[in-house]
Amino acid sequence: MSISMQLATPDSLGEIVEAVAVWQHTGGPVQLHPGDLGWHWRFGGRELAEAVRVWTRNGQILAVGMVDDGVIRMGIAPSVDEDAAFAARLLADLSDPGQGVLPDGAGAVEARFGAALRDLLRRSGWVPDEPWTPLSRELIEPVEDCALRVEVIGAHDVRDRIVDDRVAVQRAAFANSAFTVERWRAMAAAPPYRRARCLVGYDGDGVAVAAVTVWSAGDGRPGLLEPLGVHRDHRGHGYGRAITVAAAAALQEMGSSSATVCTPSSNVGGVATYVSAGFQKIPDVTDFRRTS
C-alpha cells in the first residue's frame, strides 16, 4: 500500500478540514482540530496551505500536520493509531529536512494521538518538550447562565462595531497580537467558520471586556475554544470564567459533545479559569523535541 506526503493546496483545504473533523471523538486527546486550521486561516488560504502537510495511503487522508512556529501540530486518523508502518513513514518525513517539514537540527512535533507514532518518537531519541494542560467540559447537561451580556458573530455578520470590538479585545488580551478586521474577515469567510462563532462579552457599561472563538467539528464531536482572552484593562472581575461558560453554551447549541481547550501548563491562571468554568483537567501532555 502506497503512503505519500503532499503539500496542501488552497483548493484541497476544505477536504482536509473535513478529514480532521471526522477524527475528533469524545474522550480522545485534544489533537489538531478544524478550529486550529480555521484560526490560522486568518492569514489567508494560501498561507495556510503552505503550512499544511498531508499524508495519504491509497488516496485516503490519514494524517495532517500544520507547521506553526517551529512545531508541527499533528492530527491522526483513529484507523492508524497503532499502525507501525504508517508511523515509520511519518517519522521518516518528520526527521528528514529534505522533506521540507521541519528544519535540520530543530523543531518539535505535537503528537497527542497516534500510539505507534508517539512510541516511535520516544524510541528514536525525541524528548519531551513544554508541558500542556488539556481541559474538557462535557455538554450533556444544560450550561448555566454566564451572567455576562454576549454578542455572537456569525460568518456573514455585517455589524462592523461588533467585529471591531472582537478585534480590539484580541489585541488587548495578547501581547504582540497582529489581529485585524481584515484578518477576521478572511477567517470568517473560510470553510471552518461555517461551524464556528465569535463571542464578545460586555460589562454593565457596554464595554467589550472578553472574547472567544468557538469551533464545532460537527454534531456529536468535541468543539474547540481557540482563542480566548480578556482585555488587559478588565482582568480580575471574573470575565474569563464568564466568557468560557458562554463558549461552552455556544458549542452545546451547535451540537458539540464537549468543549475542549489546551493551554501551556505554565499558564496557571488560565488553567484555573477553565476549571472554574466547569472544565476538567486531563493529564498534562508534552510535545516531542528533536535533540540533534
UniProtKB/TrEMBL annotation:
Signal peptide: none annotated. GO terms for molecular function: acyltransferase activity, transferring groups other than amino-acyl groups. Residues 156-292 form the N-acetyltransferase domain. This is N-acetyltransferase domain-containing protein. It comes from Actinoplanes cyaneus.
